[in-house]
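To: structure desk
From: M.T.
Subject: fold request, one chain
Message: Could you run this one when you get a chance? Sequence is below, nothing fancy, just the single chain.
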Amino acid sequence: MANTKSAQKRTRQTIRKTARNKGVLTSVRSAIKAAKSTKNTKASASGADTLKVAVSKIMKAASKGVLHKKTAARYVSRLTRATSK
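Reply: Done. Structure tokens follow.
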């Protein structure tokens, strides 16, 4: 249990940020999974769209500080390589 007012406030902030970050990471992972699954199908137009959405979500998470910039770049690189094969 936090002893000071500032520590209590920090605990509240951490809980809010954790919930927000968890939601963002879940949507990023879902977008990555969708992009990877559409590469297996023959619809290349939808594959390009899902890749675009996934890259957008990854970069937005990086800009908000949920993901590190280099982690996001690595995700994008691996995803584009995987979908181009």
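Reply (cont.): Residues 5-38 form the longest helix (34 residues). Let me know if you need anything else for the meeting.
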